[in-house]
Amino acid sequence: MGNLERFLLMPGSRNDTVGVAPLIKGLKFDALLADKAFDSNWIIDEMNERGALICISQRPQRVLQLEIYMEMYKSRHLIENFCCKLRDFKRIALRADKTDTSSGAMIYAVAALINSKSISTDPRPHQGGVAGLGRRRLRG
């Protein structure tokens, strides 16, 4: 959890939920962890059809509050941390690439680099937990 599986580049003016359908198409998973931006009836209906757990922080306007699994929802920070690690690379943070193809290639390359750094070849046991970097979400 917390590693890049797929991503979709979208204009900043688009609603976040528009990109969900192509991202989850054909992908099998047991739960969806998301923030309030993804509290949408069609997403919740899709998760119910798949039998996936719904771990979405709900908007206060929702009439019927859904049960969310807080212990699982707490793991959402791993996704946020990964996005922060991506933004540590100036070219991604500043969106310096001119085309979607080169931006996508850079994101995949950096994701591979991040994942390779997280695999330890040190024979000593790992000390400590996940390091959190407090920055804004990656959008795009």
Would you identify the regions where 5 or more consecutive residues have pLDDT less than 50?
A: 125-140
Helix percentage range: 25-40%
- Major beta sheet, strand line-up: 1-2
Strand content: 5-15%
Strand count, sense and barrel status of the largest sheet are: 2 strands, parallel
Q: Tally the structural domains.
A: 1
CATH architecture title: 2-Layer Sandwich
The CATH topology comes to Nucleotidyltransferase, domain 5
Give the number of DSSP strands.
2
| CA radius of gyration | 17 Å
What can you tell me about this protein's structure?
- It is a single chain.
- The chain is mainly alpha-helical.
- The chain has one domain (16-118): Nucleotidyltransferase, domain 5, CATH 3.30.420.
- It is 38% helix and 6% strand.
- It contains six helices and two strands; from the N terminus they run αβαβαααα.
- The model is unreliable at 125-140 (pLDDT under 50).
Question: What features would you highlight for this structure?
Answer:
globular; mainly alpha; Nucleotidyltransferase, domain 5; 6% strand; single chain; two-stranded parallel sheet; disordered C terminus; 140 residues
